[in-house]
């Protein structure tokens, strides 16, 4: 890692700490820094309940989900070699949402069942898109993106059908979840994402050197002795599971996986895959959007997914107008 990249990562980590500490103080009941500290270490029962039960899990959910989406987006954009190759654009998060919606709307499953169904839905979608994009034993980036967009459109329609056909209470709950939100998140939402990052991030780090070489082209990587297809399958599996676990925790958060790796690459100015920096940018974006959603002056309950959708849509328009994705 270059000095600039290291400095950017440390700065983003510091910003996350400051924003997280501030997020613990805001809400319907404003807490002082001393009250937040008492709530964390114990001593004030009311502050302890607010901080430990409500606000700290929400902050950690935003940070971990944002990091998982940023890292997942960096892997997908590297594998597809396309600026639009993020899990939300090519339908993987939509597939994870479909799996979770089946449990929420039709089966009324518990938290564990929703997580498992989201992972299975994301993996099934990834296998379908990967299979459709495979031609003569290889996967072309543009074909992966196009197939993913088509499969994602079909799954979006399927999700809408589930909302119409399901029980009214479950459908309302699912519709709120589909907007993408960190509100009301508890430790049961934090733990699966933390476990997913703890298990899969080391695997992706082991493949990072090979991925950096693969960015020069499959032929060059193969000549250097890198098993291109095996590495691609391993990191794709890890990225799909990360995106699915993140989706199960906070719903389908739009465009974080698309924006974060590209912002990280521009900030660090490094030719290497922005795995660490992309995750930190994703965590910063999602936590920042969550803070803005809470302090916005209209006193409305704004799902964080709407804010990221608006900002991500503008970013996508800029990319298209500049002709970045090719």
Automatic annotation (TrEMBL):
Coiled-coil residue windows: none
Principal cellular location given in the protein's record: membrane
Annotated GO biological process: siderophore-iron import into cell
Keywords: Cell membrane, Membrane, Transmembrane, Transmembrane helix, Transport
Protein location: Cell membrane
PANTHER family, A to Z: FERRIC ENTEROBACTIN TRANSPORT SYSTEM PERMEASE PROTEIN (PTHR30472), FERRIC ENTEROBACTIN TRANSPORT SYSTEM PERMEASE PROTEIN FEPG (PTHR30472:SF24)
Family label: Belongs to the binding-protein-dependent transport system permease family. FecCD subfamily.
Name of the molecule in the record: Iron chelate uptake ABC transporter family permease subunit
Species of provenance: Intestinirhabdus alba
